[in-house]
Design goal:
With 689 residues, the chain is α/β, with parallel strands linked by helices. Helices cover 29% and strands 16% of the residues.
């Protein structure tokens, strides 16, 4: 049913409730109201990259890896798969009376915050640093999750509204200050796009923004509901309303915090503060009308999902979980997300010329390095080691050494420091080539409280790998065998001299539960890598010259405002082909381009269009992405394509936060940014048109 029909039903139902019953429904763990035939419902569920925390589900690459695909069509398909499996799991659980957490159809995904600082531990949950790319991918994931029919397949949520990207340790008391230009140019556009796309829910952030807590922010709520016309429901981040009186100190009691959040427009509380709502009501801090208003919004969603009167999706069986076509799409995503950062010709490895392959490193056989965070459970995991073993079975010997602990100085508690390095060196000495799998996992970068990185609450202190891994890389590279570094991480890493000494560097992100198969296929040449960086990779030394982590001004941050050459630029990534944009021209409403592959291998490529408003006082310092398209280019062939560039993407934001026409738009078309560093790394310059 459509929203208006659902709202009418919700109003009629809520009007039959007592005030106390209505107030009870504003909690994430809403209890049953037996006399009205309303079952219990837990609103908290996650689907950042597949259904999470609810048992078995198809596992996609982490969100930052999905961003590296630059493939909105793929994102929509993955969102649909998550919704299908979410329905299958909900149907099975509900049939057995199981209405526990993570069993519902309201998914608190996607995360469309801007990954503005490489230290932020939760950045790998996002689609990167660019507002346009984030919006394009987020919109399609939302459409996939929610479906196209009148019946909503599942409910998506845009989070965390709106200015939120660390530091994790300060989030419960921190005020993120951003001026009108940065708000409307960087922090708000993706949320606006998702609201325009019909996202059902918006989640507020923990921190304050410009003085007000985000879960009770009068300015942001006005923007959301009055300016953008948002019709869905608003949910707090988990226990964020408790922060009002314990961290932000804007109230002095849980009753006052609950009242403030409800009055400003927070309908649903993830946490426990709304258990005080009736006390706030009795003290005159909130009105019955305010309680019922939020209850109506929530039951509108429940009716749209068919949770009270049935849905055409009720027939989706449990067998839909990990269906073969779902697993194949996850495999496609893993193949498309990997970014080739360096290659001297060593890749792809030729299986026919390998007698022995050494696979070394703490992430080589790690399941944790496959899945990132906010992940589900797979019925099968394929690590990088296992993927290579399977691919080379009967063809070559695969030797393995863990090499070191992910971050500790020894693997065995009773061993001496560096207790696994000698084994790694011995393996390298006996191998024709070496795959060195290093990086991070969710214990080193992630959300505050969810990681083992207590010193930084999930954030990174620098861009280097732990010392244990740096020692391992030095020792293995010193052997002198052809060596490929597989970097498994969700954010910018500076490998230092190891990257210079290695023959190739393949960034795999966290490629999903079975991602080791895709990584093996890329390493052995079955598939060409084609991912592009959705974030800037900085040199570690650049951190000292960047703005403070707590500074939310965009100057000096991300590819749009960076002032010096990075390690690897946003939009960069090599392939096994030899592609370039051979021709490009402006046409009405966009750009036409031709891509030529002079190489010997078929590959996908990502054509990128950047614009700079020349002569404009308010344009970002550097050209910004305004269009992109993934295209397949066979070896020795070419492909033609059109990229639409609506006039709205050519406007700039002035200091008052207004979108204005200013300057003369100049365009560059290429396979990366029109900057000197990209040209040096790829050997090709973008074409100005």
């Amino acid at each position: 049913m459509n929203r208006e029909q659902a709202r009418e039903k919700a109003m009629a139902l809520v009007n039959r409730m007592t005030v106390e019953e209505a107030a009870s429904q504003l909690r994430y763990d809403a209890p049953a109201i037996d006399r009205l035939g309303i079952p219990a419902y837990n609103w908290w569920n996650e689907a950042l990259h597949g259904v999470a925390r609810a048992g078995t589900a198809t596992s996609f690459p982490q969100a930052i890896g999905l961003a590296a695909t630059f493939d909105p069509v793929l994102l929509r398909a993955l969102g649909d798969i998550a919704a299908t499996e979410g329905r299958a799991k909900y149907n099975a659980a509900a049939a057995h009376g199981d209405r526990d957490i993570y069993k519902g159809l309201t998914f608190w995904s996607p995360n469309v915050n801007i990954f503005r600082d490489p230290r932020w531990g939760r950045g790998h949950e996002t689609y990167g640093e660019d507002p346009f790319l984030t919006a394009e991918l987020g919109v399609q994931y939302v459409k996939g999750l929610q479906g196209e029919g009148e019946a909503m397949k599942s409910a998506a949520c845009a989070k965390h509204f709106a200015v939120h990207s660390g530091p994790e340790a300060l989030r419960h008391r921190f005020d993120a200050v951003a001026d009108a230009k940065d708000m409307n140019e960087t922090y708000l556009p993706a949320f606006h796009a998702l609201v325009d796309a019909g996202v059902e829910a918006v989640m507020g952030a923990y921190n304050r923004t410009n003085g007000e807590p985000c879960c009770a922010h009068t300015g942001l709520m006005k923007t959301l509901r009055e300016d953008w016309g948002f019709q869905g429901h608003f949910v707090s981040d988990c226990w964020a309303i408790n922060d009002f009186h314990t961290g932000h100190m804007v109230t002095d009691s849980p009753e006052a915090s609950a009242a403030l959040a409800l009055k400003v427009g927070c309908d649903l509380n993830c946490g426990s503060t709304y258990v005080y709502m009736m006390k706030a009501y009795e003290e005159g801090l909130v009105t019955e009308a305010q309680i019922r208003r939020s209850a109506v919004r929530l039951f509108t969603c429940r009716y749209m999902l068919g949770l009270l009167e049935g849905s055409p999706y009720d027939s989706i069986p449990l067998e839909a979980v990990e269906a073969p076509e779902h697993l194949e799409k996850a495999r496609e995503a893993a193949e498309k997300c990997c970014v080739l950062l360096k290659n001297d010709g060593t890749l792809p490895l030729d299986p026919e010329k390998l007698a022995t392959l050494g696979v070394i490193g703490p992430n080589a056989n790690s399941r944790a390095a496959l899945v990132g965070n906010y992940h589900g459970t797979s019925s099968r995991y394929v690590t990088v080691l296992e993927g290579l073993q399977d691919a080379l079975e009967g063809r070559a010997r695969v030797l393995y050494a863990e090499g070191c602990h992910l971050f500790k100085d020894r693997v065995e508690h009773l061993g001496l420091p560096d207790d696994r390095i000698s084994e790694a060196v011995a393996v390298a000495e006996r191998s024709d080539a070496v795959i060195l799998a290093v990086g991070l996992d969710e214990t080193l970068e992630g959300e505050e409280g969810d990681t083992g990185n207590a010193a930084a609450s999930g954030d990174k202190l620098d861009l280097l790998l732990p010392e244990s891994q740096r020692k391992l890389m030095d020792a293995v590279l010193a052997v002198g065998k052809p060596t490929v570094i597989c970097l498994m991480a969700g954010s910018a890493i500076d490998l230092g001299g190891a990257a210079e000494r290695a023959n190739a560097v393949l960034l795999t992100w966290y490629p999903g539960a079975r991602g080791g198969r895709s990584v093996a296929d890329i390493l052995l040449g079955k598939v060409s890598p084609s991912g592009k960086l959705p974030v800037t990779f900085y040199k570690n030394e650049q951190l000292s010259r960047m703005p403070e982590f707590t500074d939310y001004a965009m100057q000096g941050r991300t590819y749009r405002y960076i002032e010096e050459a990075p390690l690897y630029p946003f939009g960069y990534g090599l392939t096994y082909g030899d592609c370039r944009v051979a021709a490009a021209r402006r046409v009405e409403g966009g750009i036409e381009a031709e891509v030529v592959n002079a190489g010997a291998r078929d590959t996908d490529e990502v054509v990128q269009v950047y614009v700079q408003n020349e002569g404009a006082a308010h344009a970002p310092r550097n050209p910004r992405l305004c269009a992109f398209a993934r295209v397949h280019v066979p070896a020795g062939a070419s492909a033609k394509l059109r990229l639409d560039v609506p006039a709205s993407r050519l406007r700039v934001v002035n200091d008052a936060g207004e979108s204005v026409d200013e300057g003369t738009p100049a365009f560059w078309v290429g396979l990366g940014q029109p900057d000197a560093r990209t040209a040096a790394l790829t050997g090709h310059e973008a074409l100005r048109v």
